[in-house]
Amino acid sequence: MSMLPCRVLCLLAIVFCCVGVAHANAQTSSKIVTLAEETSKLKEECEEAGTAAKNAAREASSFVSVIEQHLKTVPANPKEAEAKKQKGIELIQKARAAADNAKQLAEKTYAKSNQSLVEAETARRSEESNNSLLEEIATAIKAAEAAKNASSNAHAAATEASTTAQRLQDAVDKLEVPVSAAKEKEKEEQMKQENEKQVESQAQEQTNETSLVEQQSHTEGNQAEQTEEQKQRSRSTVTINIHGDNLDSLLNGAANKSGMALNDGSSSPALLRVPLLLLLLSVLGCMA
């Protein structure tokens, strides 16, 4: 009677142990599988970030050569240089952002791969006599190693992108010097043109004022000449009238004298012509 309960208790203990082991194996398997999936997902994201960083570094490096070649033509084409400067800044920002993203994912993936490896190794040591988890453990270890490799590549790509971005920044800084000089020169040319236009405008205003003054002076001069001509005409008319009256008086007086002389019989007609001619010449001289 006493042996039966002991046997029952032993059987129950064995059953509970088997159930506990099975439950523990299920938990371990689920945890390892979950870690392997998370690690694989991070590995893919890390690879994408590394590829983006490499492409950004390649673009930045190529544009460094473009800027260095363009430095020779900056003074002749400042607008194009300014456009290249802006393009360089965009590529710098792109490369630095890609480098930061790749670096962060590389660190995160590396940490997850280490965690997955630790869990897989722990499960393998504890389950050496049980072959039920060997496949899951091997999958987790393989995923962790691939993730570590992706993390290393992404970290290298991030470093390359960061270094190339700095090279491009240096090239853009070199481009800034001649671009600023070209802008300053263009600004001086604009100021010079504005000053020339202002001088021309002032000269035109002075010319217009001078022309107006000359026109007014010319008008006043014409008016003065017209007034003087009118005065001279008036004087000439008066003089002619006066001279005409004097001429009539002189001629009449001469005629009277001639008549008197003829009546007296003391002078001849030839002698009378001489005083008359002299008198006529004198009158004409006064009129002129």
Automatic annotation (TrEMBL):
The keyword Transmembrane does not apply. Residues 201-225 have a biased composition (Polar residues). Residues 182-199 have a biased composition (Basic and acidic residues). Keywords: Coiled coil, Signal. Residues 1-24 form the signal peptide. Residues 92-150 form a coiled coil. Residues 182-236 are annotated as: Disordered. This is Surface protein TolT. It comes from Trypanosoma theileri.
